[in-house]
Design goal:
With 405 residues, the chain is an alpha/beta fold. 40% of the residues lie in helices and 20% in strands. The strands form 3 sheets. An 8-stranded mixed beta barrel has the order 4-5-7-11-12-13-14-15, surrounded by 6 helices. It is globular.
């Protein structure tokens, strides 16, 4: 596959903010891909753009004809793109560019994108051994993702998550949708300020505090089991860096301050009392030691690093060395380079860590995250439960699941 031309264009994401779409013209036709944008970002993420979105668009145009002599026919040959452009554009632009290239390669090979990805890690996926990731659905929002709440009160934790105990994507989607509707009914009864509004990730907005929201999730778990005889695990994305200052955790609902030790004890109690399976970013992104302490105490729960690692090989190596986590978030546009994403996934799997491919708060209808997650055989897929941008990714997982039958 030969790239004849590359262009970038400004588009609007689900938050009504600007992001980039990259189009390539090849000897096989035109292909395009877009990048999401995050709101709750780790400080060690690669910058989304080198200087600005418009500057990256101009850079793509400037170097457009530099790719015409390189034939790209497999995943690992993305290095030919990166040699030319990696240091000249930001992570969002590079991710969108490489995603468009993978679409073209898949077309040339007459294969699915996930197959191109799987071949790069020598994973022979077929109907017998193809493992679908478990869905992690964002049901109720708080923290930075609930700033448009009707009042100043909101949960301090950023996301309250539902994880159906099934690897069937179709079944998991149905369960999460039903559970979110059920959650809205419960919130209407227990939160006098509940207006039926959702945040930018299509999670319910509430003024309840963290503990009460976890009680809501507990009721959901019981209801789903009664209705479907299927277990629903619970999770939280604490996004602790967002409310940590000078090694103190500044809670607003109710208003109080916790030291690192008090944060550890508080979270330990929540994990035990609510039987939480999934705990993401429980401490500040610099505090590998606190992460490690929690992972040691709860080895059978998922202690997940997002801001701690930001899809970065060096930070992952440190986390592995310190035994800080047993699961990691993979957000391709945190890094930009899909070759680096591959290194992160392989390193995590070698160390026995679970991988969780995740959406961002500012999403586009781009579905390639599903192909990347399945191709790299991710253990979990974290996404919203509703909204066309999230559903595009979930529907792509459904298509992949059906193709394996």
């Amino acid at each position: 596959m030969l790239i004849k031309e590359v262009t970038g264009e400004e588009i609007i994401d689900s938050r009504k903010e600007k992001t980039i779409e990259v189009r390539i013209i090849t000897d096989l036709g035109e292909f395009k891909a877009s990048s999401p944008s995050g709101k709750s970002t780790g400080k060690y993420e690669n910058a989304p753009y080198k200087k600005s979105l418009n500057d990256d668009i101009r850079t793509l145009k400037k170097f457009s004809d530099y790719f015409s002599e390189d034939n790209i026919s497999e995943f690992d040959e993305l290095y030919k793109v990166e040699e030319i452009i990696k240091e000249k554009v930001g992570a969002n632009t590079l991710f969108a560019f490489e995603s468009a290239v993978l679409k073209a390669v898949a077309k040339e090979k007459k294969k699915q994108i996930w197959q191109i990805v799987a071949e790069s890690i020598n994973a022979k996926i077929n109907r017998k051994n193809g493992k679908m990731p478990r869905l992690v659905g964002n049901c109720i929002g708080g923290g930075k993702h609930a700033l448009n709440s009707a009042t100043d009160k909101r949960p301090d934790f950023q996301e309250f998550l539902l994880i159906p105990e099934t690897n069937s994507i179709i079944q998991a989607i149905g369960i999460n949708k039903d559970a979110q509707v059920n959650a809205g009914m419960i919130l209407k009864n227990v939160d006098e300020n509940f207006k039926g509004n959702k945040n930018e990730e299509f999670a319910w907005i509430t003024t309840l505090n963290d503990k009460v929201v976890l009680e809501v999730l507990k009721d959901l778990k019981d209801n789903i089991y009664d209705e479907r005889k299927l277990y629903l695990d619970e999770g939280i994305d604490i996004a602790a860096s967002g409310f940590c200052a000078r090694k103190k955790y500044q809670y607003m609902n109710p208003k109080l301050t916790r030291t690192v030790e008090e944060q550890f004890d508080y979270l330990s109690a929540l994990i035990e009392n609510f039987h939480l399976l999934y705990i993401e970013d429980p401490f500040h992104e610099e505090d590998f030691e606190a992460f490690a302490k929690l992972t040691k105490k709860f080895p059978k729960r998922l202690i997940v690093g997002d801001d701690l690692i930001v899809t970065n090989v060096k930070r992952l190596e440190k986390a592995i060395k310190m035994k800080a986590v047993n699961a990691i978030i993979v957000k391709p546009n945190q890094n930009g380079s899909l070759l680096e994403v591959k290194r992160v996934c392989l390193l995590a799997k070698k160390a026995g860590l679970k991988t969780v491919f995740s959406h961002r708060s500012g999403e586009t209808p781009e579905p390639i995250l599903a192909d990347l997650a399945f191709g790299f055989q991710a253990d979990f897929f974290k996404c919203g439960i509703a909204g066309k941008e999230r559903e595009a990714k979930l529907n792509r997982l459904v298509d992949i699941e059906k193709s394996l039958r």
